[in-house]
């Protein structure tokens, strides 16, 4: 039987998906928006190629990674990145280890994401913040299963309820477009809406503004209750 290839190395190969400035821009935005603390411990769960891990390090944080692949070591040779067997949804870090847990495009890969979010709760310090991003089912339903490893779609309502039911407080969830020029200029969102309505999906491959106007994300944050010491 042929050995199974590394998912991250194959699907996110540099030729088809070259490195960009976007991860650094997103990390800086999140760092400022959530008033994250320099030198605080952050776990990038499902860190993939390591671009967001590196982005948080560049923000001055003590960032760690966990993923089935160790490809993130290529651009983060000094970072601690532990290989995680997500088939058992175990995060290989101790209880209450992190002030922040960040994940992008991770929860949707599980049939039972509540098992993984219980692990997030375990490794997060009381009062700590989880920030998670997943595809917005309402805007990507036509291509959601283009990634054959996608299992559970989320809507804005279901993601918020999911975090509330699984033990988190101060939950917020919003639709989010991966277009940095919109983040501090919300009045320009109408332009992305127009692009989404007028441009067919076939044009996505020609321009990132078209692609990310059509392929929405959900951005959610929540805190671990301070009374929960488990």
Characterize the structure shown.
With about 230 residues, this protein is of the alpha/beta class. The protein is globular and about 45 Å long. Strands 3-2-1-4-5-7-6 form a 7-stranded mixed sheet, sandwiched between helices. Helix 3 links the parallel strand 1 (about 40-45) and strand 2. The chain has a single domain (about 5-185, about 215-225), classed as 3-Layer(aba) Sandwich (Rossmann fold), CATH 3.40.50.150. The chain has helices spanning about 5-10, 20-35, 50-60, 115-125, 135-140, 155-165, 180-185, 190-200, 210-215, and strands at about 40-45, 60-65, 80-85, 100-105, 125-135, 170-175, 215-225. About 35% of the residues are buried. It contains 9 helices and 7 strands.
Question: Descriptors for this entry?
Answer:
230 residues; Rossmann fold; alpha/beta; seven-stranded mixed β-sheet; single chain
Whole-angstrom Rg: 17 Å
Mean pLDDT: 88
* CATH homologous superfamily classification: Vaccinia Virus protein VP39
Low-confidence stretches: none
Strand line-up across the major sheet: 3-2-1-4-5-7-6
Distance between the termini: 42 Å
Which helices and strands occur, and which strands form pairs?
Elements: H1 7-11, H2 22-33, E1 41-45, H3 51-58, E2 62-67, E3 81-83, E4 98-104, H4 113-123, E5 124-135, H5 137-140, H6 156-165, E6 169-176, H7 180-183, H8 189-198, H9 208-214, E7 217-223
Parallel strand pairs: 1-2, 1-4, 2-3, 4-5
Antiparallel strand pairs: 5-7, 6-7
Helix pairs in contact: 2-3, 8-9
Describe the structure concisely for a colleague.
The chain is α/β, with parallel strands linked by helices.
């Amino acid at each position: 039987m042929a050995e199974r290839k590394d998912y991250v190395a194959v699907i996110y190969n540099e030729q088809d998906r070259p490195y960009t400035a976007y991860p650094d821009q997103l990390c800086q935005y999140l760092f400022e928006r959530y008033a994250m603390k320099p030198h605080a411990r952050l776990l990038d769960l499902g860190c993939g190629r390591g671009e967001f891990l590196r982005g948080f390090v560049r923000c001055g944080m003590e960032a760690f990674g966990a993923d089935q692949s160790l490809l993130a070591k290529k651009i983060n040779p000094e970072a601690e990145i532990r290989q995680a067997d997500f088939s058992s949804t175990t995060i290989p870090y101790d209880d209450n280890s992190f002030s922040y847990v960040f994940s992008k495009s991770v929860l949707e890969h599980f049939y039972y994401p509540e098992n993984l979010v219980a692990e997030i709760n375990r490794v997060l310090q009381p009062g700590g913040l989880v920030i998670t991003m997943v595809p917005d089912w309402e805007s990507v339903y036509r291509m959601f299963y283009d990634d054959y490893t996608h299992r559970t779609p989320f809507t804005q309502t279901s993601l918020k309820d999911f975090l509330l039911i699984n033990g988190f407080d101060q939950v917020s969830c919003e639709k989010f477009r991966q277009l940095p020029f919109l983040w501090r200029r919300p009045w320009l969102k109408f332009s992305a809406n127009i692009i989404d309505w007028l441009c067919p999906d076939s044009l996505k491959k020609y321009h990132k503004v078209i692609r990310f106007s059509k392929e929405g994300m959900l951005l959610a944050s929540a805190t671990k209750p301070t009374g929960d010491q488990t």
